[in-house]
């Protein structure tokens, strides 16, 4: 099943397809899902306990999910903004999360190096650009919050001229440069990790969807948790759920996260002469300050990746390969490339794809291991899982192997968000917020005035 992702198309890993599960099995750790979360967890468990038996069950192929389809942003961000996280917890907690996440960017790059994975990383940082005067207040507010919380160190505020020396974006008024970020080739990273964990002794079975996960103590003659598939049942000391958006499709887990589609368009390679008009030699990750998420990266072979949210949420949290493409949203993303870079208004596009991200009710990921059920999980990255999944893998491995983790005080660890509302309330709420964000962005762009911060939609979007 092709996802249409350029990253999976250009992996060149030559690894043969892996066979499915071939009957019942008994292991120490069973992991459901072979994306970044499942693979980092396996890697870290086996580094801590090389003798552990680890089995990863994947419904499709390794990297098939968001890990093989994303915007290439390896950053230190989580979806809950520092200001909102400080309101919910404390400034000290925000500083601890920031330190852990900044270190995570280094950890990912170091692990790829150690494991001999060429993830084609370019460490250019993140440029959050105010496009239009109406985006300046949001940029200034964000920076003031980071200063107040004591996490603005290393960040630079660029005026329009300084920004233009790096990248020439239409109507750019300034930017915040955060050095803690790298553009990576996620396909190479995820497939490289899959090979690496096999070298460490893990077994990956593909085309083996888990139908159900039974907590410890349930089911005939076994004390451990079990993963039930139509090719056999796996009994384990612990089962780790690493299914991100697909968690919403599993019995007993349906209202834990809301699957929302993020979509991407990719240009053909752009000639060096045309790149000279644009700049962007530093391969920084780019986004604006508007409410509807946008994200850009420059690929190693000189293409522009433009991603954004805005594709409609599907009633009942449905996920389908058909939703990976949405004509209206993809067309809008293509016009956005010309809007950002008028010099490239005639550039051709080669790819359009997408995939579901997982939003918990409070946008905060949860990394948990429940000793009473034997089930661990790391889900709910809200579109920011490339870095966070590595931290999650380390935390889960600590908990599985040592029963404790130095990250126990981070708000994501042991976190249990409240569940989403039943349908049709969930659909009504999601569609309202999506529509309101788009309308507020459009009004701000038209009027040149920043959207207020007090409306219902703004409050719902304040994360
Ligand atoms: C279009 C898009 C762009 C994004 N851009 C960025 C970005 O630039 N930066 C960033 O930080 N984050 C980004 N994200 C989010 C990020 O990619 C994810 O948070 C991260 O990859 C999640 O990794 P994961 O391993 O938890 O989940 P996934 O990679 O989604 O893996 C889950 C795996 O579980 C498998 N699975 C599902 N159900 C079952 C089952 N029943 N049995 C067995 N296996 C199952 C799936 O096939 C899949 O392979 C983006 C996401 C999307 C969709």
Q: Span from first to last CA?
A: 35 Å
Specify the number of helices. Answer: 12
Largest sheet, if any?
A: 8 strands, mixed
The computed structural class is alpha/beta
Secondary structure tally: strands: 18
Unreliable stretches: none
Mean of residue pLDDT? Answer: 94
Summarize the SSE layout with pairings.
Elements: H1 6-9, E1 25-32, H2 36-48, E2 54-57, E3 73-75, H3 82-88, H4 91-114, E4 126-131, H5 136-148, E5 156-159, H6 160-166, E6 172-178, E7 181-183, H7 186-199, E8 203-205, E9 212-214, E10 226-229, E11 232-241, E12 258-267, H8 272-278, E13 285-288, E14 294-298, E15 304-309, H9 327-340, E16 349-359, E17 366-370, E18 375-379, H10 385-402, H11 425-447, H12 456-461
Parallel strand pairs: 1-2, 1-11, 2-8, 4-13, 11-18
Antiparallel strand pairs: 3-7, 4-6, 5-6, 9-10, 10-11, 12-15, 12-16, 14-15, 17-18
Helix pairs in contact: 2-7, 2-10, 3-4, 4-10
The structure holds flavin-adenine dinucleotide (FAD).
Flavin-adenine dinucleotide (FAD) binds at residues 32-38, 57-60, 64-67, 69-73, 209-210, 242-246, 250, 262, 264, 295, 307, 354-357, 381, 383-387, 389.
């Amino acid at each position: 099943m092709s996802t249409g992702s350029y990253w999976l198309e250009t992996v060149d890993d030559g690894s043969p397809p892996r066979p499915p599960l071939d009957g019942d099995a008994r292991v120490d750790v069973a992991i459901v899902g072979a994306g970044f979360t499942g693979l980092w967890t396996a890697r870290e468990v086996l580094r801590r306990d090389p003798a552990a038996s680890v089995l990863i069950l994947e419904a499709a192929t390794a990297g098939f999910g968001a890990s093989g389809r994303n915007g290439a942003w390896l950053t230190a961000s989580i979806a809950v903004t520092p200001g909102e996280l400080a309101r919910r917890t404390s400034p000290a907690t925000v500083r601890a999360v920031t330190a852990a996440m900044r270190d995570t960017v280094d950890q990912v790059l170091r692990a790829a190096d150690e494991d001999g994975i060429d993830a084609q990383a370019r460490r250019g940082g993140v440029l959050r650009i105010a496009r239009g005067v109406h985006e300046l207040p949001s940029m200034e507010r964000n920076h003031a919050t980071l200063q107040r919380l004591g996490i603005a160190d290393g960040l630079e505020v660029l005026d329009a001229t300084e920004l233009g020396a790096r990248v020439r974006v239409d109507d750019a008024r300034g930017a915040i440069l955060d050095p803690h970020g790298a553009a990576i080739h996620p396909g190479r990273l995820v497939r490289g990790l899959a090979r690496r964990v096999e070298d460490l002794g893990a077994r990956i079975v593909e085309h083996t969807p888990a139908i159900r996960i039974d907590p410890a103590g349930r089911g005939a003659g076994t004390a451990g948790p079990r993963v039930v598939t139509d090719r056999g049942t796996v009994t384990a000391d612990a089962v780790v759920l690493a299914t991100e958006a697909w968690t919403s499709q599993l019995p007993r887990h349906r209202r834990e996260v809301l699957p929302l589609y993020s979509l991407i368009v990719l240009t053909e390679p752009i000639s060096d002469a045309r790149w000279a008009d644009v700049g962007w030699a530093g391969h920084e990750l780019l986004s604006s300050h508007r409410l509807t998420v946008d994200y850009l990266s420059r690929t190693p072979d000189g293409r522009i990746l433009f991603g954004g949210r805005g594709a409609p949420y599907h009633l009942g949290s449905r996920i389908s390969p058909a939703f990976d493409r949405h004509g209206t949203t993809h067309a809008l993303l293509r016009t956005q490339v010309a809007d950002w870079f008028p010099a490239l208004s005639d550039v051709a596009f080669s790819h359009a794809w997408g995939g579901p991200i997982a939003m918990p009710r409070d946008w905060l990921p949860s990394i948990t291991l429940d000793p009473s059920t034997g089930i661990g999980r790391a889900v709910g990255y809200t579109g920011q899982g490339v870095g966070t999944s590595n931290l999650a893998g380390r935390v889960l491995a600590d908990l599985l192997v040592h029963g404790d983790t130095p990250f126990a005080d981070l708000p994501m660890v042991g976190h249990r968000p409240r569940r989403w509302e039943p349908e049709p309330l969930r659909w009504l709420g999601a569609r309202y917020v999506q529509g309101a964000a788009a309308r507020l962005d459009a009004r701000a762009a038209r009027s040149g005035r920043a959207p207020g911060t007090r409306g219902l939609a703004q409050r719902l979007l304040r994360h």
